[in-house]
């Protein structure tokens, strides 16, 4: 099975994304090859789900001459808290990380976001690398968005801090439960909708189940999806323009996650519902037929529930959407599609959004 | 009395520093003139010392059509805590600041550092301006270093986030207690030592007391001292090189502050002691005579205590210095002078530092 590599250009530096089965076991070799300034020591931050599975593989890739510390946080969205952030900084200080030390985020999006924000802010910023172990993290590990949650909103505190290297080992995904696949696959579908109709068609043909994967198909899917993300973030690192397109499906998605209580519904499950909502708004707004039925059928066949959960209220969701980071001057900014692959950002009034929500929930 | 202006170039943008008596009362006019993208709303963050003195002046500068919120934190170093950071973010969310809102830091270094770090991380970064009200803040308000403290070290968490404007009103300094003048003046002296011998001479002649100030002398001192700082930070925004020179006197200074307990001794009082220590190390290390006696005499005549407080221990101070942000690979990096205006960064062994400390404390 092959190895593929993508390079992402950022204002801070250019960094490689390696997609290669088994690469977690050669972590040190990749660091040695790609990171120019040799780190003084390493802190691997991971969670208690991932630690028993892959932590040893990563640690054992280092020669005994290197100082490698580890810090394990509880798995789950609740670790993206101010409290866990402070505790992780405390660990970094106790291990005496200095400005030339390297943080290694080994895990899914939560670990990457938390460890990345610690790296972004520790001594005003030290380097870090990402070793994603979920499908969802193929998205979050690229582009440098890091941060933590606040009870009033997801990712409300954070930074743009680019990793120095992303090591993606598709083998690590094989241990994922089905729900985690669904959480990540929504972002793959999203990348298709906003930038690559061929990817959508390819997914319909090649992805038939989350239970069995051909390693080449999986690697190709990761490569194609990451390529969409990488192209966008390197064009617009700090979300002044096109990067906002990545928010397709996320304005309502984030609101659903927050309103249901973080963790009750996965990010991707919420985003899938948000995508359907955004598609419907797009068709209404631009009077087009996006012919998205085959893609939505694929989502359903993969076990997605595409309706807004009945226990949520339309007013509550609208309120959540109005504190979205992309909102300003009280106008909610929605990513809509004029066609598949042709996204636009559209200011939407609360009334229109509410009407559309009320077709589904009270 | 005149107005002077300096422009600082950063990778993010160029920002003006206005030094003008009374300018706090024209805050909105300056924002309107210098900030290109009109903010959606304003959050003034200040402390309970400054609020009764100047908050109204700033608020009243805004027309009633603008939304101006205020948030007052307790004065003192203890507000640079994780807890106060989280509470300030909560306030920003409750006031519904969006990515185009402007944070105004009205106060000394604590307010600037805290408010600046909130601005740096809120929704991954929103603009902020500084309105310094202390002499010490003439230093901290320029250059974009923002952050909070950890019990294991000062400013251990933070960011480089450049202000969009610095409004310096020398009138606001006239209410400062003598101890605050001493805290800030140490940075002025430091700027002379590392970059501008003429400034040192000028200070010896023109600054005779902290109790009475000629507004022109005060404005000129601010201008000259800020100019040194601005030149350095625009050459090296992220402390990869020459910016480290600004740390002259600070390695021991920070250690003294932390070891004595934050707030027990002011930043500048500690830095003054650190400067004397660094001068002595410099003379020893480079076998030079820096002829700094007249400047140290000036410091003494202005009420500085230049010995290391007897209750502190040499080992404790050394331990603190070894977690300094500029340390790496266990080597403590000290800024020394080969001559006045000729700083260098020198790796120092613990033994040499300890010997020198033990001339003063156990």
Automatic annotation (TrEMBL), chains A, B:
<keyword id="KW-0520">NAD</keyword>
<feature type="binding site">
    <location>
        <position position="145"/>
    </location>
    <ligand>
        <name>NAD(+)</name>
    </ligand>
</feature>
<keyword id="KW-0862">Zinc</keyword>
<dbReference type="GO" id="GO:0009073">
    <property type="term" value="P:aromatic amino acid family biosynthetic process"/>
</dbReference>
<dbReference type="GO" id="GO:0003856">
    <property type="term" value="F:3-dehydroquinate synthase activity"/>
</dbReference>
<protein>
    <recommendedName>
        <fullName>3-dehydroquinate synthase</fullName>
        <ecNumber>4.2.3.4</ecNumber>
    </recommendedName>
</protein>
<feature type="binding site">
    <location>
        <begin position="133"/>
        <end position="134"/>
    </location>
    <ligand>
        <name>NAD(+)</name>
    </ligand>
</feature>
<feature type="domain" description="3-dehydroquinate synthase C-terminal">
    <location>
        <begin position="184"/>
        <end position="327"/>
    </location>
</feature>
<dbReference type="Pfam" id="PF01761">
    <property type="entry name" value="DHQ_synthase"/>
</dbReference>
<dbReference type="InterPro" id="IPR030960">
    <property type="entry name" value="DHQS/DOIS_N"/>
</dbReference>
<keyword id="KW-1133">Transmembrane helix</keyword>
<comment type="pathway">
    <text>Metabolic intermediate biosynthesis; chorismate biosynthesis; chorismate from D-erythrose 4-phosphate and phosphoenolpyruvate: step 2/7.</text>
</comment>
<keyword id="KW-0479">Metal-binding</keyword>
<dbReference type="GO" id="GO:0000166">
    <property type="term" value="F:nucleotide binding"/>
</dbReference>
<feature type="binding site">
    <location>
        <begin position="75"/>
        <end position="80"/>
    </location>
    <ligand>
        <name>NAD(+)</name>
    </ligand>
</feature>
<keyword id="KW-0547">Nucleotide-binding</keyword>
<dbReference type="InterPro" id="IPR056179">
    <property type="entry name" value="DHQS_C"/>
</dbReference>
<dbReference type="InterPro" id="IPR050071">
    <property type="entry name" value="Dehydroquinate_synthase"/>
</dbReference>
<feature type="transmembrane region" description="Helical">
    <location>
        <begin position="102"/>
        <end position="123"/>
    </location>
</feature>
<keyword id="KW-0963">Cytoplasm</keyword>
<keyword id="KW-0456">Lyase</keyword>
<dbReference type="GO" id="GO:0009423">
    <property type="term" value="P:chorismate biosynthetic process"/>
</dbReference>
<feature type="binding site">
    <location>
        <begin position="109"/>
        <end position="113"/>
    </location>
    <ligand>
        <name>NAD(+)</name>
    </ligand>
</feature>
<feature type="binding site">
    <location>
        <position position="154"/>
    </location>
    <ligand>
        <name>NAD(+)</name>
    </ligand>
</feature>
<keyword id="KW-0057">Aromatic amino acid biosynthesis</keyword>
<dbReference type="GO" id="GO:0008652">
    <property type="term" value="P:amino acid biosynthetic process"/>
</dbReference>
<keyword id="KW-0812">Transmembrane</keyword>
<dbReference type="GO" id="GO:0046872">
    <property type="term" value="F:metal ion binding"/>
</dbReference>
<dbReference type="GO" id="GO:0005737">
    <property type="term" value="C:cytoplasm"/>
</dbReference>
<comment type="similarity">
    <text>Belongs to the sugar phosphate cyclases superfamily. Dehydroquinate synthase family.</text>
</comment>
<feature type="binding site">
    <location>
        <position position="250"/>
    </location>
    <ligand>
        <name>Zn(2+)</name>
    </ligand>
</feature>
<dbReference type="Pfam" id="PF24621">
    <property type="entry name" value="DHQS_C"/>
</dbReference>
<keyword id="KW-0472">Membrane</keyword>
<dbReference type="InterPro" id="IPR030963">
    <property type="entry name" value="DHQ_synth_fam"/>
</dbReference>
<keyword id="KW-0170">Cobalt</keyword>
<feature type="binding site">
    <location>
        <position position="187"/>
    </location>
    <ligand>
        <name>Zn(2+)</name>
    </ligand>
</feature>
<feature type="domain" description="3-dehydroquinate synthase N-terminal">
    <location>
        <begin position="71"/>
        <end position="182"/>
    </location>
</feature>
<feature type="binding site">
    <location>
        <position position="267"/>
    </location>
    <ligand>
        <name>Zn(2+)</name>
    </ligand>
</feature>
<keyword id="KW-0028">Amino-acid biosynthesis</keyword>
<comment type="function">
    <text>Catalyzes the conversion of 3-deoxy-D-arabino-heptulosonate 7-phosphate (DAHP) to dehydroquinate (DHQ).</text>
</comment>
<dbReference type="InterPro" id="IPR016037">
    <property type="entry name" value="DHQ_synth_AroB"/>
</dbReference>
């Amino acid at each position: 099975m092959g190895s593929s590599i993508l390079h992402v250009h950022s204002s801070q530096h250019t960094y490689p994304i390696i997609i290669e089965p088994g690469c977690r076991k050669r972590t040190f070799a990749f660091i040695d090859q790609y990171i120019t300034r040799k780190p003084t020591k390493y802190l691997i931050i991971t969670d208690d789900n991932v630690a028993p599975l892959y932590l040893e593989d990563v640690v054992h890739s280092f020669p005994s001459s290197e100082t490698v510390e580890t810090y394990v946080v509880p798995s789950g969205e609740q670790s993206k808290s101010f409290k866990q952030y402070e505790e992780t900084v405390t660990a970094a200080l106790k291990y005496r990380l200095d400005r030339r030390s390297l943080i290694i985020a080994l895990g899914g999006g939560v670990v990457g976001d938390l460890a990345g924000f610690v790296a972004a802010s520790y001594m005003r910023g030290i380097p870090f690398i990402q070793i994603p172990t979920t499908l969802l993290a193929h998205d979050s590990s690229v582009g440098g968005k890091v941060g933590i949650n606040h009870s009033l909103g997801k990712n409300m505190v954070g930074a743009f801090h680019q990793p120095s290297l992303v090591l993606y080992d598709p083998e690590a995904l094989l241990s994922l439960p089905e729900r985690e696949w669904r959480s990540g696959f929504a972002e793959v579908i999203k990348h298709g909708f906003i930038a690559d109709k061929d990817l959508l068609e390819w997914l319909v043909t090649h992805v038939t189940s989350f239970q069995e994967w051909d390693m080449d198909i999986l690697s190709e899917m990761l490569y194609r999806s990451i390529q969409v993300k990488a192209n966008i973030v390197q064009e617009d690192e700090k979300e002044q323009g096109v990067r906002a397109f990545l928010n397709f499906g996320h304005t309502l998605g984030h609101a659903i996650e927050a309103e249901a209580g973080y963790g009750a519904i996965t990010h991707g499950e919420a985003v899938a519902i948000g995508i359907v909502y955004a598609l419907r708004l797009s068709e209404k707004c631009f009077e087009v037929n996006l012919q998205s039925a085959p893609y939505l059928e694929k989502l359903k066949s993969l076990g997605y529930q595409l309706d807004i959960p009945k226990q949520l209220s339309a007013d509550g969701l609208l309120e959540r959407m109005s504190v979205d980071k992309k909102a300003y001057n009280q106008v909610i900014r929605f990513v809509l599609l004029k066609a598949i692959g042709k996204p636009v950002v559209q200011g939407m009034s609360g009334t229109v959004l509410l009407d559309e929500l009320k077709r589904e929930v009270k």
